[in-house]
Specification:
Elements lengths: L15 E3 L10 E4 L11 E9 L4 H10 L5 E8 L7 E3 L1 E4 L4 E5 L8 E3 L3 H45 L1
Parallel strand pairs: 2-7
Antiparallel strand pairs: 1-2, 3-4, 5-8, 6-7
Length: 163
């Protein structure tokens, strides 16, 4: 059986700021607080390497005890490249006269960073919602048709027996 396990994961991040390109006021910027808490795939993979797992005496003993045989180790590095366009959904806090902080909402709502603009994000979610509405309607109609067929057959057979 194949399964993936993250045995060692290191997350290092540097706080970054978002500045609107071509803005007249270059002193105002948005500081993104804890970007790794945000959902959404906004980072680009800049490094990926697959290595074979080491096979030594200690590894063979560990394999015998655990019943798992490591096959490969995957190293990958993702980052937000300079100049990337990014849209954030979260709580906005004014820190000073010229600094706005984007952070995870305190009331538990989602904190999202996406590499697209607002309209494409909303279009994607509306398309998903329309798909679920269509599937719900088709499932409902199928269920109603089956139920009507069963009821018709049941009462139709009773009418045939009474004659």
């Amino acid at each position: 059986n194949s399964k993936t396990i993250n045995k060692n994961e290191t997350n290092n991040f540097v706080p970054f700021s978002l500045v609107q390109p071509g803005s007249y006021i270059s002193k105002v910027y948005v500081k993104v607080q804890n970007p790794l808490e945000a959902s959404g795939c906004y980072m680009e993979r800049v490094h990926s390497k697959v290595r074979r797992a080491k096979e030594g005496l200690v590894d063979m003993v560990a394999q015998g005890l655990s019943g798992e045989k490591p096959v490969a180790l995957v190293e990958s590095e993702q980052m937000l490249c300079v100049g990337s366009s990014l849209t954030g959904f979260g709580e906005v806090v004014l820190e000073g006269g010229q600094v706005i902080r984007l952070q995870a909402p305190q009331d538990g709502r989602s904190y999202i960073l996406v590499p697209s603009d607002y309209t494409s994000f909303m279009d994607r979610h509306e398309a998903s919602a329309n798909l679920w509405k269509t599937l719900t309607a088709v499932t409902g109609l199928t269920g109603a048709t089956l139920l009507a067929g069963i009821v018709y057959n049941y009462f139709g057979k009773q009418d045939d027996r009474s004659r």
